[in-house]
Each structure stands twice: as C-alpha cells, then as structure tokens.
Amino acid sequence: MTNGYFEDVEVGDSQKAGPYSVSKEEIIQFAKQYDPRPFHIDEAAAARSVFGGLSASAAHTFAIFISLTNELQPPVRAIAGLGYDELRLPNAVRPGDELYLEAITLEKRESKSRPDSGVVRGQFRLRNQKGDTVLQCVGNGLVARRPDAKAST
Amino acid sequence: MTNGYFEDVEVGDSQKAGPYSVSKEEIIQFAKQYDPRPFHIDEAAAARSVFGGLSASAAHTFAIFISLTNELQPPVRAIAGLGYDELRLPNAVRPGDELYLEAITLEKRESKSRPDSGVVRGQFRLRNQKGDTVLQCVGNGLVARRPDAKAST
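Output (structure tokens, whole complex):
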C-alpha cells in the first residue's frame, strides 16, 4: 500500500487514468479559442483535408493529457511539472474517442534545491479505444517527500 | 519578400507574435476544465501555496503557445506539428500577463514521406511583458513546398 510520497514511488511502477470521452463539440470549442484551423473547427473543410475529418488540436490533446494526470491511480503527491521531452502526437484525436493514460516511472532522484520533494521522471502514453497512441512524452515532476523522511535528514 | 513556403524558410529566420493578454477569468476557467488544482482555480488557496498567487496550468500556457503559432509574422505555410522537444515552463503565467512568442528556425530538410512538404525545426520562446520566459521548446513542423518546386522534381 502506497501513500504516494516520493519514498513510495518505485522505478517500473505504472499508473492509469481514463477514459476521457472527447465530443465533437469540445474539439470545435477548444480549437475556436486556441487553434482555429479549418480541420479542427469545420467538419466539411476537415473532410476535404488530408486528415479526412475533424481532429483535435495538439493543444487540446495536451490539455486532456494534463487533465488525466490529475486522476492517475494509484495517486502520487505531485507538486508541479518541471517539463516534458519527446512529446509526439502520432495519431489524431477524433470525435467520440475514449482516451486512456498510462504512466510508467523511469527514474527518481532527490531534489537538489528542494529538500521537501524529489524529482520523478516518467513515460506517459495516451491511447484511444483502439489502442492507438495519440500522445506520448517523457515528463519530469516534483513529488512530495514523506514529512518524517524530511525531518530525519 | 517571402511567400512562406518551405523553399522560402532559411535557418536563422525569426518570427514573432503577440501580445496575448491573459485574464484571471481565463486562467480559472481553463483550469476548472482541464487542471483543477487549487493554485490554478482558487485565489485564496493560491496565495497560501508556494506559487504565492494564481498561476496558469501548464496545459493553458501550452494552448496559448499554440494559439500564437497561428499568428507568427512573417507567416509560414505550416501544415502540421510533428512534435515538441525539451518543453520547459521556467516561470508561471500570472493574471494580467501579456505574452509574446518568438520562433527561430534551427534546421530544415525535405520530407522523406511527403514530397509536398518539408520538415522545419524551430526554437520557440514565449515571454511575458517583463521578458521572463514562461514556455520554451524545440518544435518540428511540416511546411508546404512551393507547388512549382514540387512539379520540377
């Protein structure tokens, strides 16, 4: 049983979240505000494009990824994201998709600058209901250390 | 004078966009939907947190970055983003910030799989009104080739 502190995290641990259901309305609304390209906001234009239909903005897919990081089970006491590497979006997110996030811990180390937390590096993969990856990246985040561990150092 | 085709892009070129004005209401609304952590949605909780006040979700900052890529001047005929490397968010986005994007072309090469386009690699930096970087990354995108260049190959 884990309490989600840095001390509880082990390399190779996996966490899961989802599904997140993506509606056509949400794809269009998000893109109108942040990425108003025809293949994100106009069904007819999208059908004629190389995408062959509406697809979510990369910014929207990233927002859904961040949303699901808040729901990962078992939970980890993440304080802040430090950055993301090798972010790729190999397949488009489509209206009606159901998205699932998986996180696997790659590395952990104590923070040099923050004694109350540690740095955890993880591989994230967001997949649709067919198992196709729609977003993948390596993320680095700060995770809270157990209070008694901090007191003992 | 450039027409924004792959053939017109040169290593070292720079493009700019902005400002994008970030309101408190937009920060809270975005975070309520995609990243409902207290320091993104609750002013009192945010004031007590290590952030010392409301800050935008990383997903929101990324969405503003994508939004501004659509407005870069001079424009380039970008077809699709292929991915992002070394994405970092060194400073928080705050209510009232005015954000400016700068893109600098690092590399260009023809696409192996798509004769109608080329791959351009660029350094992106999103700064606030004080010049502090709030998001930086290296992005790879497909840019349309000039139609006559395609016909001549």
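The domain at 6-144 of chain A is CATH 3.10.129.10 (Thiol Ester Dehydrase; Chain A).
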